Amino acid sequence: MCRRVNPGGRWVWRRSREVFSGVGNNRGRSPRLDRRQSETGTPSPDRPQRSEEDAVSTATAPIRRKVTRPRADAVRNRERIVTAAREMFVEYGPDVPLDEVARRAGVGNATVYRNFPDREALVREVVCSVMDRTAEAAERALAETGDAFAALERFVHTAADERISALCPMISGAFDRNHPDLEASRERVERLVDEVMARARAMGRLRPDVGVGDLLIVVAQLSRPPAGTDCGRGDRFVHRHLQLFLDGLRAPARSALPGSAVTVEELRMS
Fold this sequence. Notes:
Blueprint: E1 2-5, E2 12-15, H1 16-19, H2 31-40, H3 52-60, H4 72-92, H5 98-105, H6 109-115, H7 119-145, H8 148-161, H9 164-167, H10 180-202, H11 212-223, H12 231-249, H13 264-269
Antiparallel strand pairs: 1-2
Helix pairs in contact: 4-5, 4-7, 7-8, 7-10, 8-10, 8-12, 11-12
């Protein structure tokens, strides 16, 4: 269809499609119409509409988050720091300079502080690690042999090797003894020793008048070198004396013990 317009008194024929641009296509649609359709919810003819099923599936789809794992070298550095700190805490106590720990571990000071922001965090990690390794040694012995008394022996000797008697007392004074990590490691050790002793007692291998507290106290005392002696030299006698103690735990008992068995609760209160 054509139409005449008269600009300046001259007749010009134009196609109505050119005059009314957009009629029958999308290029000339009024923005006001689009806005009114969006307000009323009327779908636009040229836009594909999402179904309700698509909307629900998109809303309920799980969001996948990328889990970052520490690099292997970062894990090794952390382990080296903990090992070096354990050695130096045993030799010099918990106040050893942290730059000396970094030097022995073969890492920079920044690496130490990136893993452990303060001294308390490092001491806590060392103590938790030795308790966890001691518990794991007893668990492996129990799984391998099924012998509860053998697992008890493994626990006692590993505790001496890990220097629990020297490291655990460091968690006192200014340090938070009730930190959740420490509580978890401590309770794991106590539960394990209690279970192993109960099983050894039920098998007739452990004398009945000994408690968990008795065992932990003696291990701590025998693993600590005598006053005035070199720490390294005292190591020669530790396992010998611990084995004497373990032989005294075997049933049947040769003599009656004075008093009653020491429980974990009594040990914590002492």
